[in-house]
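Notes continue from the previous slide.

Worked example: a multi-chain complex. Inputs as given:
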Amino acid sequence: MKTDWRERRHRWDIRYAPYAYIAPYFLLFAVFGLFPLLYTAWVSMQDRNLLDGDAATFIGLDNYVELLTADPHFWNAMGNTLSLWLFTTVPQILFALGVAQLLNRRLRGRTFFRMGVLLPNITSVAAVTIIFAQLFGRDFGMINWVLGLFDLGKIDWQAGTGSSHTAIAAMVVWRWTGYHALIFLASMQAIPTSVYEAARLDGASGWQQFWRITVPMLRPQIIFSTVIATAGNMRLLAEPLLFGAGGETGGSDRQFQTAALYLYEQGFKQFDFGYASAVAWLLVIATVVITGLSYLAARRIRTD
Amino acid sequence: MTTVLEPLAPGAPPQPRRRGVMRMRMPGPWTYAALIAVLAGSAFPVYWSLVVSSQTPDKVDSVPPVLVPGGHLFANIARVFDQTDFALAMMNSVIVSGTITVSVVLFSTLAGFAFAKLKFRGRSGLMLLVVATQAVPTELGVIPLFMMMSDFGWAGEIHAVIVPGLVTAFGVFFMRQYFERAVPDELLEAGRMDGCSSLRLYWNVVLPAARPAAAVLGLFTFMQAWNDFFWPLVVLPPENPTVQTALSTLASGYTTDYTLVLTAATIGTVPVLAVFLLFGRQIVGGIMQGALKG
């Protein structure tokens, strides 16, 4: 009798317990991940503004049509997003390659150096942006002071498109270079030295070895870094939001308003939920396209 | 975000040391000089934040700028806690990050154990679903999520920040990869023979074996939860902030009191900095093994 009960419990355990263990993930994800995701598509086809009492009217693709054909702010935000993506992703990868190359030696205090380059990555984006905004201040910022030492004059970093994008890109690159450098370093250490020795015998310089051996050997990691950097950099929001006094408009002339920030403005300042949801979908589509293109570009690294 | 690399489980047998490879180039003085310059650049903004937070407000505007810490750090810290809700913000952030960390580690080890070591119908299909959901950008769902929280009456409360963070696809994936290599099937079979239920196996065998990987996942989850900005900004009002949204409120005010703002930024960085100084080696190791995504 007792063994029978244990036998049955055992069968239950084998058959159903696994589902119980994975259930919390799937339940929570379904409610707070998947459902909102699908619902965004529905909301994006509605005229739905919280300020109108949250009444929802189905309007089909009107939000999309308006965004794409009649909203210069949207195109401005998309342009800024692309510009910032380029200004952040490319230097991030190049600097990371350089830093990894430096770290790929028999260093004393190896852990110290590795932790040092990762330090920026652990700091919060809010803190980083506030600190950099101060460093990039017009009148009393450290960077303008240094420029002044070389008689280069003062730059009103927030005011222009190019200057504000440079400043924001500096924050992003500063924060992420070390992370990518460590990914590259791990793979560099797996390249056998015999390859380099052979190249040296053939008279290849250090520079040639780096571009002809190291970089091609790192291709999978460069692709990986490019893809995740692109996914992250296409949705910059905190940096432009907290950089200076512009707030959700990203500067007085929206000179550094990104698409993610425009989504935030439409959704949580104008409370135009339908319109903001359409921005969300267009941003995701743009991100998929750009990620695909940068994947293809990174894949073109020669592997000879 | 996608994890393209096949992550190595930390604690998996180390790759064989390549003997002879260690004849790697010896670093010369220029390498050290360059690295120290990189390090200085990495540390400078954090150091600068500390410098400003130890000065009086009038010193911040001086030309040339003051480059060494002054003696007003504690006075400024006191001002941050007197003039703002920063104590509440710290408390909220501790609760949010602590709860999310415990929950992610618990549910990820549980689900990772099931996916790696238990057999059930639909296992590979469901695992594929977990991997696919990693690529989902959360921003896309932010508006319906906010509407849901309003309907639940949770908007403005910290459980609105906690609940969506209780599980992550990445955590499940990460722990599954680890268990596949780190927990031998023989050990679990032996436990079965002794009549252990799967829950007891989990508790007595799997969870203790998970410690190194669970620690890395926990550290990483804590740092991400602590630093999270967008969702708390959307769902919490300025009166009930986390550290990051409190910083945003401080920075967007009309005040130009940078000593106050940067002191708050410094205080808000201390918890992750402490975690990093204690466990930096493990975190660096996790990233170098390709196991921790950005």
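Summary box: Chain A touches chain B through 100 residues (CB under 8 Å). Strands of chain A lie at 46-48, 56-58.
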